[in-house]
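so my prof wants the structure for this chain in the tokens format not the other one, which i didnt know existed until like an hour ago. anyway here's the sequence
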Amino acid sequence: MKFQALLLCALPALPLSAASLLDSPQAGGLRLKGVSSISFGVNGLLLVADPGSQTVMAVETRDAGPKAKPGAVADIASTIAGGLGTTAENITIKDMAVNPASGKVYLAVQRRPDNASLILTVDSAGKVAPLDLEKLAWAGVTLPGGTASKVTNITDVAFDGERVFATGTCNEEFASRIFTIPVPVKHGSTAGVISAETYHVAHRKWETKAPIQSFIPYHSGDADYVVGAFACTPVAKFRVDDIESGAKVKGVSMVELGSGNRPLDLFDYTDRGGRQWVVVHTQRFKDNLFGPSKFWGVRVSMDHLNAADDKANEKATWRDVKAKAGPEGIEIVEALFGAVQVDKLDDRSAVVLREADGRLSLEVIDLP
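here's what i got, hopefully its the right format
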């Protein structure tokens, strides 16, 4: 059966708190030129980064629970392709996000040859279905480039409880950008923008063009940060709570995970012992030094991110690239070998898209 025949005819009423997340929303009719990243806020608020229109959209999905564990799907690309009237070779899953309110998995998909951009969902029974954007309220915010420039890519988007952040690049000298959008998200408004400079530990120099590939908002003490990972692979934090739009901010690189890697996903969690971690999921683009797959992940204790400044930048902590763990508080996550996409389900588990024998499977893994 085609996905077009599976669209929901009715939707539950919006929780009042969810409706307050949008200002001057549009009543359906959202069209996507392309999707580079998706993530969730609260109460089913879906954030969509569309670099084709240089816009971040906030979509009220009306998917606010109850929460259930998503079902596994073997060969998910073929399942998606069958519903879209094509073959698995014509399907690219651009990003994946888990709705923390319901546990439902959302997939940003590009179909060839028409390059259509679609959002699909996977429920607790493993059923794959389209998200009907025609029926949902949404608000779009433009991301500014510069005086004579434009945004060339949007790498990630996330919600910190008070505002939306996005990261990306523009075609200026200070190309790396952090965008800020206040909540409620007002349709037709323009985001604030911060130029970001980062010390790349493996390169031993400050850089302004390399974008934050993936990030999380992070609160420590009395300060708000964006904690981001870059190619080759420094993990840096940027204090953003008191930065005005148009300013430049220097990141503080706290950990170096090793050159030759490209970050794909980032999330934080608290383990059973109460210790806080950030998980950095990456793709190795040089010869593997450790592990069976070019797709792998590592968890880093938040103690490293909260370390004193005398352990930052030139003196940042380096991961032992030839071992499963080391130094203390930096460990390989075995369950992420072969995962091409990952997102947290809760503090005990995560959802992964895993590559094996040329096929992608969707599954739930336990976090260490």
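also thought this was worth mentioning. Residues 272 and 348 are 8 Å apart (CA to CA).
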